[in-house]
Specification:
Strand content of chain B: 25-35%
Helix content of chain B: 25-40%
Largest sheet of chain B: 4 strands, antiparallel
Largest interface: A-B, 51 and 52 residues
Structural class of chain B: alpha+beta
Radius of gyration of chain B: 24 Å
Order of helices and strands of chain A: HHHHHHHHHHHH
Order of helices and strands of chain B: HEEEEEHHEHHEHEEEEE
Radius of gyration of chain A: 26 Å
Strand order of the largest sheet of chain B: 7-6-8-9
Number of helices of chain A: 12
Distance between the termini of chain A: 29 Å
Strand content of chain A: under 5%
Number of strands of chain A: 0
Shape of chain B: globular
Distance between the termini of chain B: 63 Å
Oligomer: heterodimer
Number of strands of chain B: 12
Number of helices of chain B: 6
Largest sheet of chain A: none
Structural class of chain A: mainly alpha
């Protein structure tokens, strides 16, 4: 039997089985395929056992209606997690002044420890993962609050090491509970930490990490290669998350520098710097599209397309906004979007033709 | 029964939380151990409730450290009488001493750049409490008052001169009773060297701060590097629970009078040792 390792894989398999059943029925109805009763029964029993197992272990959606409800539950879980995290944050600020320092510290440390343990406990029992996600986000929020409030209570000098601590806990929660949201949180904290450290090497204060966006480049490249160095197959969607996060971490600073050359480390004229980064932006996003299509990294390719369009529209704004009537400017933007659509459609048709050729 | 991988994540996560808290609390304990770097007898003039004091959503109490630059008579007296006399501390020579790279910006012929950042770095500020710099501020106001009174006495019918004299009187009273007695006197990057230069730990606290430097287009149509203290880390100081209410007094915040013993520890992080109403 094909062993699935995660809810995502189980759901994909369940969807494939449903699709297969619909196609099989069509083939049987049209007389293209003939199956004996024994064969049909064995097939149905096999699929029922598989789906039953997936339902018990991973709480997969049995049909399209359940899938829609799942999407609603995911949104509710995410919003609920944010709301509870905000409540914890503001709740502490509301009441902390009523306690002595010892009680404050005890509450902070205990809340971090208890919410973390609760997340791990829930993960063992919650097949759907929604409650685990909620608890994990609250646990992360409690830990952030823990460190921030200790800093306020004891007037501790701000340090970038807090980012490393938050990245570590977010990463552990992500891998323990199979949560991409916490992985993103961990990567953002790690990105901020590394960028801050790169900045301090040039004598800059760490909290000014956004002043020179080039500081984000080394960590973006490192994040991109993590799935290549450390296998992420056991964690559904993690490899894709690393790659997309890396691309965004790389291209957002490039976008910034393409409009704000003053912020660059390069000692060149600002116009030259902006032109250079505009070119880099186009090349990197085009490269991301190519790589994403070639490796079938759908999210990665789509992110590349998004940034390519942003760079293109930014450039068109620079060229034409002042000299063109507004209706003409937006018409040109629309036509450019159509052109991109045609190009991508051609690429898609070429891919399909290629795939059909290979099957023959 | 928990799988071994789950047990690993559980133990690793607990260890991260415990270790990070231990480091933070250990650092705070180390800061307060032994002899403090400085101990100051301050009052409501130097430590006062901030703008967001006692918000309904925050039951914590904190005070803000108020400090000043040495003063000089203002060049243009339209809005205020005194300017900061901070060229020696924030000018190009000092910036060079502190290690800022003062190569002019590449786009220096573009006059639309009013300000172009150079960089920022962590520095140590040396303050002086109730010393010669404060006396200088008092003297400036006394001289202004003498001049204003002389002018008013010379033209008793002149309402504007009379008001000027009243204003000068109020400014002197304010300087004596309300204005902060803490003045910035030096900036450096080596704490030990600064402490050697200013050994009096009750009059010269040393604070950690962030200093920024940028290029300003001066009135002489030249780029000029300028420094500024963008952040003093000890600016907002938490008030322990046992002292809550002292800052409010009988008449509310911003009117209460109190004395505070403020210590700066080994890591130059401050804490309030005592606080009592005056």
């Amino acid at each position: 039997m094909n062993k699935v390792k995660s809810r995502l894989e189980a759901q994909q398999r369940a969807d494939e089985i449903r699709g297969f059943r619909r196609e099989l029925q069509s083939l049987l109805d049209e007389g293209v395929l003939v199956l004996g009763d024994d064969q049909r029964r064995a097939l149905d029993q096999f699929h029922e056992a598989l789906l039953g197992g997936y339902g018990r272990q991973f709480d997969v959606d049995p049909d399209a209606q359940a899938k829609q409800l799942t999407l609603g539950m995911r949104i509710a879980s995410f919003l609920g997690a944010l709301a509870i995290a905000a409540s914890v944050f503001f709740g502490f600020y509301q009441f902390w002044g009523l306690f002595a320092a010892t009680a404050q510290v005890s509450v902070l440390v205990a809340s971090s420890l208890l919410t973390f343990v609760a997340s791990m406990w829930l993960h063992q029992r919650d097949a759907s993962g929604y409650f685990t996600k909620l608890a994990a986000l609250v646990a992360f929020c409690c830990f952030v609050l823990n460190i921030v409030m200790l800093g306020q209570i004891f007037n501790i000098t701000p340090s970038d090491s807090a980012l490393l601590a938050w990245a570590a806990l977010a990463g552990l929660l992500a891998y323990a509970c199979d949560l991409r949201l916490l992985l993103v949180a961990g990567l953002l904290c790690a990105t901020a930490f590394v960028s801050a450290r790169v900045g301090t090497w040039s004598g800059m204060y760490w909290l000014d990490l956004g002043r020179h966006p080039e500081q984000f480049f080394p960590v973006a490249i490192a994040i991109f290669f993590v799935p290549a160095w450390i296998n992420q197959d056991r964690f559904a969607g993690f490899a894709s998350t690393y790659r997309i996060t890396a691309l965004v971490t790389l291209l957002l600073p490039v976008l910034l520098l393409s409009n704000w050359g003053e912020a660059s480390y390069l000692r060149l004229d600002d116009d030259v710097i902006e032109g250079l980064y505009q070119l880099i932006g186009f090349l990197v996003s085009a490269g991301a599209i190519w790589l994403g299509i070639r490796r079938q990294w759908q999210g990665f390719a789509n992110t590349g397309i998004t940034f390519f369009v942003i760079f293109l529209y930014t450039k068109m704004f620079d060229w034409w906004w002042e000299i063109m009537p507004k209706y003409l400017f937006f018409l040109l933007l629309g036509l450019t979007a159509l052109l991109i659509l045609f190009v991508l459609r051609r690429v898609r048709l070429a891919q399909l033709a290629n795939a059909a050729g290979l099957r023959r | 029964m928990m799988a071994s991988s789950s047990r690993f994540y559980l133990l690793a996560g607990l260890m991260v939380i415990v270790v990070v808290n231990a480091i933070a609390l250990g650092g705070a304990a180390y800061n307060r151990s032994g002899d403090p770097d400085s101990v100051l007898a301050l009052d409501q003039r130097e430590l006062r409730p901030g703008y967001e004091y006692r918000s309904a959503e925050n039951s914590g109490v904190s005070l803000q450290l108020d400090w000043r630059y040495r003063e000089k008579p203002a060049v243009e007296k339209n809005y205020q009488r005194y300017d900061n006399d901070s060229d020696a501390l924030l000018g190009p020579d000092k910036l060079r001493d502190l290690g800022f790279d003062l190569r002019p910006p590449v786009s220096h012929d573009d006059k639309s750049y009013v300000q172009q950042d150079i960089s920022s770095r962590e520095v140590f500020l040396v303050m002086q409490l109730d010393g010669a710099t404060r006396r200088h501020s008092i003297e400036l106001r006394q001289q202004s008052l003498q001049l204003a009174e002389k002018q008013s006495a010379g033209a008793p019918q002149d309402e504007a001169l009379r008001k000027q004299a009243e204003e000068a009187r109020r400014e002197l009273a304010s300087e004596l009773a309300d204005n902060s007695r803490l003045f910035l006197v030096d900036i450096g990057t080596d704490h030990d060297r600064l402490r050697e230069k200013y050994p009096d730990r009750n009059a010269y606290p040393i604070l950690r701060a962030r200093m920024e430097a940028s290029w300003g287009w001066g009135l002489d149509n030249k780029w000029k590097p300028e420094g500024r203290i963008s952040e003093v880390y000890a600016r907002t100081i938490n008030v322990p629970r046992r002292f809550h209410g002292v800052e409010r007094g009988e008449y509310g915040a911003h009117k209460a009078k109190y004395r505070i013993e403020l210590a700066f520890g080994k890591r130059l992080e401050p804490w309030i040792r005592s606080m009592s109403a005056l």
